[in-house]
Specification:
mainly alpha; 0% strand
Length: 113
Amino acid sequence: MANEKMYTSFWDFYPYYLTEHSDLTNRSLHFIGTAGVLMILGVAVVLQKWWMLALVPVCGYGFAWFGHYFIEKNKPATFTYPLYSLGSDFVMFWHILTGQIGKKMEEAKKTIV
């Protein structure tokens, strides 16, 4: 990490996060994992099945880490920036859901040198 930039704000970090998710399949796995997390949370609350909350990190990190290790072949940002990375998962999920991800990916590529 000696040569890596240190991020001190979420919105400075997010373009870097996007560049670490340049592969469509990896982004899709993240989307599936985040959607799964939201569904598990919703079902757990509605049914008051609190044991289901244990499935949240398995679902969220399982899909994401598979994508990083086997597809993108990079280290998940979670290990260096856990909170920024978690927040970025949800922002990227929103950008995919609303069709903004292409534009955001292009902006990120221009920002990260």
